[in-house]
Amino acid sequence: MEQQQLLKLLQNVAQQTLTPEAAIESLSKDNFEELNYAKIDTARVRRTGYPEVIYGAGKTAEQISGIIKVMKGHQKAILATRVEQDKATAVLQELPSLKYDAVSQTLTTVDEKTASVGNIAIVTAGTSDIRIAEEAAVTAEIFGNHVTRIYDVGVAGIHRLFAKIDVIRQANVVIVIAGMEGALPSVVGGLVDHPVIAVPTSVGYGSNLGGMTPLLTMLNSCAAGISVVNIDNGFGAAYNASMINRLIDKGHI
């Protein structure tokens, strides 16, 4: 139950159009809606401040559509990640109000009045990392954050990073995304005074080992203030960055 629904419930009790007993019964419900293939968490916004999100990989288009139809009754913003083009086409036939982004492989719909807060900079080492970067960017924007994109500034041409460093320093949080050897987060971490979230990607030649090499590089970074998420996990990086950004915006940090 979102805050608006809770407020309406309390108003109904105050106006004596709903009994306290009925209100208690409504609040004590399971807070999830059962489908034969999924249990939709309808109370996630109230508990965490963030909406339920669909991980599209491994789900059929029919399952994704069914889950979204339930979610739309409980939250304004819809985000489905890792949705391939053919699935997205089928979902859009059922739900044409959604928007599909082929680069980030996301399906979204969001209230146009949602205000953006703070600033999250998303930095990639190379153009090949943009798919993961756009997953992070779309996620952060859906969660109500202002996003600055800075792409293709890896260590192979470090002057490109220095040309953008003043823009990066203006952000509250920086998400740094890199494949190959994964050196870029360490460099950025030594140049800024705010949290850096590193995302290793599976981009690279054989010894990249599907992202294991940059993952280990980032975990072993000598620059302080860097946290690391899993390989190709743009969504997870954006979620953490959003939490930090909102705390800063509220003056808690």
What attributes characterize this protein structure?
253 residues; alpha/beta; Rossmann fold; 2 domains; five-stranded parallel sheet; four-stranded mixed sheet; globular
Number of strands: 11
Order of helices and strands: HHEEHEHEHEEEHEHHEHEHEH
* Tally of individual helices: 11
Outline the biggest β-sheet: 5 strands, parallel
The CATH class name of the largest domain reads Alpha Beta
- Widest sheet: strand order? 8-7-9-10-11
Estimated structural class: alpha/beta
Query: What Rg do the Cα atoms give?
Result: 20 Å
| Beta-strand percent range | 15-25%
Pfam families: AIRC (PF00731)
GO molecular function, one term: hydrolase activity
Domain PurE: 118-250
Protein name: Phosphoribosylaminoimidazole carboxylase catalytic subunit
List the helices and strands and how they pair.
Layout: H1 3-14, H2 20-27, E1 32-34, E2 39-41, H3 44-48, E3 54-55, H4 61-71, E4 78-81, H5 85-94, E5 99-101, E6 106-109, E7 117-124, H6 130-142, E8 145-150, H7 158-162, H8 165-169, E9 173-178, H9 184-189, E10 196-200, H10 212-219, E11 226-228, H11 234-249
Parallel strand pairs: 3-4, 7-8, 7-9, 9-10, 10-11
Antiparallel strand pairs: 1-2, 4-6, 5-6
Quick overview:
The protein is an alpha/beta fold and 253 residues long.
Question: What do you see in this structure?
Answer:
- The protein has helices at residues 3-14, 20-27, 44-48, 61-71, 85-94, 130-142, 158-162, 165-169, 184-189, 212-219, 234-249; strands spanning 32-34, 39-41, 54-55, 78-81, 99-101, 106-109, 117-124, 145-150, 173-178, 196-200, 226-228.
- The protein has eleven helices and eleven strands.
- Strands 8-7-9-10-11 form a five-stranded parallel sheet.
- The protein is 39% helix and 19% strand.
- Helix 4 crosses helix 5.
- The protein has 253 residues and is of the alpha/beta class.
- It folds into two domains: 48-109; 117-249, Rossmann fold (3-Layer(aba) Sandwich).
